């Protein structure tokens, strides 16, 4: 249930209402907009007399929210959420460009890629240290030493780092990571999501390989219900009957999600397509579709990459794409 307050209401009266609702065991999510405040009621609202609340002179209207996701529901929070990562912002008209290799391989590799993508205008550096590989015989990432190399690249370039966490027990290693990525395979690792909800750190939540938008939102809800509102969603392609592509990029998910939630929505055209030459057109399409950013794999030597070389752009290809992305952004402004 949401209670939409009248513009510029008396604070004390509003607080009285909040206290009364809390007294009934109801959680209140307060969203202060420029002109009016929206109270999102979480919990068993069946005992709340909607008509009584609606009749209060400080209340504009009361609506039942039928969706099971509440904290990430745009009805609870009509204005776009802006997630801040240092000086970088995602959402609310701020476009975040995240780029870097699938996996961190060496200091030279990650630092040179970080410098290249920064020069092309990237806002954040990605790179996996713990890799969820389909085969146990494939490169599993450098682990903790990979995180150390990411820190070096951050120090060299000033770019915040985005890297995947696979398990709760690794959390202490990620203390100074700027954005924790939850990979597609872990989107419904609810224990992990609940733990991440206790952090005060942005979480990049990727859509699962075969998950619906509602399931993605419910996973965001797990993080937010535990207290961490800094969630960025990523559409990264889903399993369909696509044969020549790694996945199917569900671009319509972008405007749909942005209608349903106030969270920023970014697109990963690398994992969605699996083919480097298909990445630029899909990145531009995602930008045109209203995405709040892009996460793109870039490698200095794709044929020799230890992971996902086929879908990795070379730094010069990323540079050309970044220019076109900026041009598309100008057009859709
Ligand atoms: C990745 O970003 O390298 C990755 C493993 O992505 P996903 O979880 O979307 O497959
Ligand atoms: Mn990858």
Descriptive account of the structure:
This protein has 333 residues and is of the alpha/beta class. It folds into two domains: 2-63, Phospho-2-dehydro-3-deoxyheptonate aldolase, domain 1 (Alpha-Beta Plaits, 2-Layer Sandwich); 83-332, TIM Barrel (Alpha-Beta Barrel), CATH 3.20.20.70. It has ten helices and 14 strands. The chain has helices at 11-23, 50-55, 107-119, 144-157, 190-196, 213-225, 253-260, 269-273, 279-288, 315-332, and strands at residues 2-5, 27-32, 37-42, 59-63, 83-85, 88-90, 96-100, 124-126, 161-164, 179-182, 203-206, 231-235, 265-267, 293-297. Strands 13-12-11-10-9-8-7-14 form an eight-stranded parallel beta sheet. The protein has a four-stranded antiparallel beta sheet with strand order 2-3-1-4. Strand 12 (231-235), helix 7 (253-260) and strand 13 form a beta-alpha-beta unit. Helix 3 (107-119) packs parallel to helix 4 (144-157), helix 3 (107-119) packs parallel to helix 10 and helix 5 (190-196) crosses helix 6. The chain starts with a strand and ends with a helix. The relative contact order is 0.12. The model has no long low-confidence stretch (mean pLDDT 96). Bound molecules: phosphoenolpyruvate and manganese (II) ion. Manganese (II) ion binds next to loops.
Strand order in space, largest sheet? 13-12-11-10-9-8-7-14
Bound molecules: phosphoenolpyruvate, manganese (II) ion
Q: What is CATH's topology name of the largest domain?
A: TIM Barrel
Number of strands: 14
Count of spatially separate domains: 2
| Helix percentage range | 25-40%
Oligomeric state as shown: single chain
What is the end-to-end distance? 34 Å
**Helix-strand topology string:** EHEEHEEEEHEHEEHEHEHEHHEH
The secondary-structure class comes to alpha/beta
The CATH class of the largest domain is identified as: Alpha Beta
Q: How confident is the prediction overall: mean pLDDT?
A: 96
Helical element count?
10
Shape: elongated
Q: How can the largest sheet be summarized? A: 8 strands, parallel
């Amino acid at each position: 249930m949401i209670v939409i307050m009248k513009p510029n209401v008396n604070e004390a009266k509003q607080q009285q209402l909040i206290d009364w609702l809390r007294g009934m065991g109801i959680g209140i999510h307060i969203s202060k907009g420029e002109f009016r405040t929206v109270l999102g009621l979480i919990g068993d609202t069946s005992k709340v007399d909607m008509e009584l609340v609606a009749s209060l002179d400080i209340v504009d209207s009361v609506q039942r929210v039928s969706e099971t996701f509440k904290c990430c529901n745009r009805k609870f929070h009509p204005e776009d959420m802006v997630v801040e990562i240092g000086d970088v912002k995602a959402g609310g008209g701020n476009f975040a460009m995240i780029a870097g290799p699938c996996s961190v391989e060496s200091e030279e590799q990650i630092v040179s890629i970080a410098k290249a993508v920064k020069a092309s205008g990237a806002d954040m550096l990605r790179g996996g240290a713990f890799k969820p590989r389909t085969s146990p015989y494939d490169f599993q990432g450098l682990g903790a030493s990979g995180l150390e190399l990411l820190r070096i690249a951050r120090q060299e370039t000033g770019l915040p780092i985005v890297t995947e966490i696979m398990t709760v027990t690794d959390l202490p290693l990620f203390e100074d990571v700027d954005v924790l990525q939850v990979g597609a395979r872990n989107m419904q690792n609810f224990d992990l999501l609940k733990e991440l909800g206790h952090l005060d750190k942005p979480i990049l939540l990727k859509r699962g390989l075969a998950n619906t938008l509602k399931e993605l939102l419910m996973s965001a809800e797990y993080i937010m219900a535990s207290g961490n509102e800094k969630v960025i969603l990523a559409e990264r392609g889903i399993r369909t009957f696509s044969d020549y592509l790694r996945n199917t990029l569900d671009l319509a998910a972008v405007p749909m999600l942005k209608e349903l939630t106030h969270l920023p929505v970014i697109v990963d055209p690398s994992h969605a397509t699996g083919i480097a030459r298909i990445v630029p057109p899909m990145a531009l399409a995602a930008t045109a579709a209203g995405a709040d950013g892009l996460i793109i794999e870039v490698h200095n030597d794709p044929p020799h990459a230890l992971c996902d070389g086929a879908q990795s752009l070379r730094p010069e290809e990323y540079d050309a794409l970044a220019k076109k992305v900026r041009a598309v952004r100008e057009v859709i402004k």
